Amino acid sequence: MKTLYFLDVEEGNIAQRDLFNAATKAKFDVRKTIENLGIKTIIVRKNTTPYKFVNTVIDFLRVVVLFVKILFVVRQNSVLLLQRRFSHIKLLLISKALKLKHSELCILIHDINCLRFDKNKGTKRELSEIKNFNLADSLIVHTPAMGKKMKEIGITPKQYPLYLFDYYTDNSPANQIVAKNEVVFAGNLGKSEFLKLLNNYHFEKIKFNLYGFEKPAFITNENLRYFGRFQANHISDIQGGWGLVWDGSSVETCDGILGDYLRYNSSHKSSLYLVAELPLIIWSQSSLRSFVEERNIGIIVDSIEEIEEKISSMTDDEYQILKNNAKTISAELKAGKMLERILLLLVA
Question: Has residue 27 got a pLDDT over 90?
Fold first, then answer.
C-alpha cells in the first residue's frame, strides 16, 4: 500500500462574515477529513508582507524549501494530494521532486475556471489550466461529465469522480413537520438572476424559502420568503422540504456561463441540502442527474415552472422515500466518506 501525504496552505483567522459564506467550506472540510484519517500534512506558508519584491524573494525561497522537504519527508512510492492552486513553476518543482521519489501527485479539483467563466476555447486561462493539471498523475474531479469535458480539452491524467463534496456540520437538521411544499434555495441571492423572474410568478401550492447574506430588494412576491442567513456549519436553521440547485438568468433552463457550469460541476449547494436531509431538485442537464436518479434522492426538472406540478402530484409516501435516502447520504457527507472512498483507491 502507498503512503498518502497532504500538501496544504497555511490559513489565517476566519472573518466573521466568512462564517456565513460557504465559499471556502469545501476546502476546510477536505482538511478535516485528512486530519480525521491521520494523514501527514506538509504546510506551505503564505506570504504576508506588503512588498511585491520581498514576496517574490520569499516565495522563491519557500519553493526551494518545499522541493527539499518533499525529497526528505515523502517516502518512496507515495501519493501527495493537494487541493490549492499553485503557480506552474511550483507545480513543476513539486512534480519533479515526487518523480525523484517514485511517487505521484494527485490534485483535488474544486473548480475548473475555464469551464466556469470562459465562453470560448483556447483562452489563456484554459491553456494555463491544461498545462497545470497535466503535471498531475491523477485528478479528483467533481463528476464523470467534468472528467469527460476535461479530456476533450486535453487534460489527460487518471480521474476519480467525487460526485458530492463532504459537508461537516456542528448540529443536526431541524426536527421538521413534513414541508413537502417548501423549496429551499441558499446562496448569493443577488447573483442568482433567475430569482428576479421567479419573483413575477404566482404559485398556488409551493413556496420558496430563500437564504442568503441579505435580502435582495427585488423580492416582493409572497411565494419568495427570505429566511435570513445561517452559518455554513449550522444546518439546523434551514427550514423546508427540498433543495433547489439552479443557476443562470432563466426559470425555463439553466443558461449562461453559470448555468452551463452545472453540466460539469457538483454544486456545493447539493451537499448542503443533502446533509440537511432535503431531497434535491436539479436541472435535467445537470452533471449530477445520473447520481440523483441512481440514489433516488430528488427530482429532475427542465424548468422551475415544472416544480409545482411534480411536487403536488407526489404522495407523502413517495416523498418520504426520497427524504430517507437523503438522510442516508447525509450521514456519509457528515463523516467525510465521499473523499475517504477515493483516498483509499489512491493508496491501494
Answer: yes
